[in-house]
Amino acid sequence: MSEPTVDALLGALSEAAELGAGRVPEDELEAVRRIVASAAERRALSSEHTVVGFFGATGSGKSSLMNALVGEPIATTHVRRPTTSVPLAAVWNPRGASALLDWLQVSDRRIVERPFAEGQDLSLIVLDLPDFDSVALEHRAIAERLAGQVDVLVWVVDPQKYADAVIHRDFIAPLASHAAVTTAVLNQVDRLPEAEVGRVVESLRGLLRRDGLGDVLVLPVSATTGAGVDDLRRVIARFAAERKAASQRLAADIRSVAGRLEAAGVPGRVRAADTQSLERGLAAAANVDAVANAVAGSYRKRAGQVTGWPLTSWVLRLAPDPLRRLHLSPGRDARRDAEVHRTSLPPMSAAQRAQAGTAVRSYADAAAAGLGEGWSAAIHEHAAVALESLPSELDRAVARTDLGARASWWWPLLGALQWLALIAAVLGGVWLLLPVLLPLWGMVAPVIPQVEGTATWLDGWPIPLALLIGGLLLGVVLGVVGAIIGGAVGAARRSRARRRLRKQVGAVAREVVVLPIEGERERAREFAVAIARAQGSRKRTSGVG
After folding, report:
1. Which GO terms describe its cellular component (predicted)?
2. Rg of the chain over CA atoms, in angstroms?
3. I need a labelling partner for 83 at 20 to 30 A (CA). Which of 13, 29, 115, 498 fits?
4. Whole-angstrom Cα distance, residue 56 to residue 65?
5. Per-residue pLDDT tens digits for 109-141
């Protein structure tokens, strides 16, 4: 499988920077922007030339090594040398190199006519740089700047300072990811006993491994005697001949800065229990149980008005309907716009707001698990925004819910029977009064018939009396039956309304809380994938909620 191109790495890094805006520290994003800008500038310049920089501490012999490689003392011709206060460039094949040297801000240039390596026509720039441990801050700044620009890094150390902790901690270790374009030179080995050279080289290799440069080449060299100079020349010539160093350097820069961004983390899995806990908390805050109880109360009240004893059921009409009091409709009303109409539920109490806040923040905590500080803060910011809008959103959810408290088919049936029973009772009562009232008006009193032939205790009862008592008893029985049925059906309607309300509350939870937070988690996942691609990895992130 081929290595990803610099274009692919840069694209992934730019995508990661865009996704990470506001989530990762600004100084890290600024480092990304610098790398992207630097890469664009370097790639717009000469691709033929390979830029090699000699970096080292005071007295490491960089200038002498430069002279030994060039074959002439160019590093001592400038009036301000040999302190190496400004960078010096030795240039082979100068065509097209000027713009590159201008970008490097190197004005002291020497064109070298003799070939760098026998039989090879190489386009090469070798820089002798100021000491990075110089007491002059501007010298160190130049070395640090060019350490971020050259294609190949050559660390030049001497037997006295090769183990200096400052050199390794401040300069070599931060560029450990650039091993592919790095070479270490132990200069001035002529000052060591021959038997000690191998030991010091191995010691230096161990220090470089500790810095993260386990595979870097270490060359023992003496600029004075020429020992190892040809080996160094061959290494540099190989970099120049392959003309891959610039791309390898850019790739290493991209991977390095991408590695610093990776601390954003990967979101963990949000459990179903976390979502259910959120919905339960919001349902409690939305007074779902109170509304469901109002559905049952409204159904019982209206059922009693229709099926109760007509002489007493009118009293129920005087009591307010529990649903109407909340400005809610018993069923879905096509003429009612829930976005305009509101319920008359009391505003969330402090306890209900606390319950909603606890539910939302607990969900946000679960959703932010595994993420870095910036991403976690963004998720909790979404949670805070959601808490501001939840009271009105929950109220609208209740208002648009079909509560299912409509009239039932049995209401008119029982109601009709109630009226028949009342009519029978009234007829019986009037009939009983006729023998008393008609004589007062000079009319003949009718004969009151009796119940006969039933072979029951009703035999001998006056029919009007039976109608009166039977009608009254039937009305009471029908009222009790209606109340029992109304209570049972009301309880069922309460359960159904509770389910529907919780479904609507769940929809609000998903729209207002879950989706924005999941969008942030998806952004974090995409960020992690972009970081992995910027590092040249095809790994996949886990933790889909």
Report:
1. cytosol
2. 46
3. 115
4. 11
5. 999 998 998 888 899 999 999 888 776 788 888
pLDDT at 77: 42
Domain boundaries, the chain: 50-243, 272-329+355-535
Match 């010691």 to its residue by tokens.
203
Taking a C-beta distance cutoff of 8 angstroms, is the pair 307, 482 a contact? yes
Residue type present at position 321: D
Percent of the chain with pLDDT over 70: 92
The answer to whether 205 and 218 are in contact (CB under 8 A) is yes
Classify 350 in phi/psi space as left (phi over 0), alpha (psi -120 to 50) or beta.
alpha
Please report how many Cα atoms fall inside a 13 Å half-sphere around the Cα of residue 205, on the Cβ side: 13
- Residue 543 pLDDT > 60: no
Distance of CA 121 to the CA centre of its chain: 54
Chain centre distance of CA 193:
61
Distance in Å from the first CA to the final CA of the chain: 31
How many other CB atoms are there within 10 angstroms of residue 413's CB atom? 12
What CATH architecture applies to the domain 50-243? 3-Layer(aba) Sandwich (3.40)
CA gap 344, 323 in Å, rounded = 9
- Token pair, residue 226, equals 């020429």
Q: What's the Cα-to-Cα distance from 529 to each of 13, 392, 445, rounded to whole Å? A: 10, 37, 103
- pTM for the whole structure: 0.75
| Cα–Cα dist 540/529, whole Å | 7
C-alpha closest to that of 237 among 330, 360, 123, 366: 123
Give the Cα separation of 227 and 216 in Å (integer).
20
Query: Under DSSP, is residue 204 helix (H, G, I), strand (E, B) or coil?
Result: helix
* Side chain identity at residue 141, one-letter code: A
Q: Helix 272-285 and helix 373-399: axis angle, to 10°?
A: 50
Residues 6+ apart with CB under 8 A from 482: 303, 304, 306, 307, 308, 414
One-character DSSP codes across 89-136? EEEES-TTHHHHHHHHT--EEEE--S-SBTTB---EEEEE---TT-SS
Residue 376 dihedral angles phi and psi, to the nearest 5°: -60, -40
**Average pLDDT, rounded, for the chain:** 86
- Say whether the peptide bond before residue 82 is cis (omega within 30 degrees of 0): yes
Name the token pair of 57: 């501490």
Q: What is the pLDDT of residues 380-405, one digit of tens each?
A: 999 999 999 988 888 888 888 888 88
d(CA 88, CA 531): 37
Provide the β-strand partners of residue 220: 186
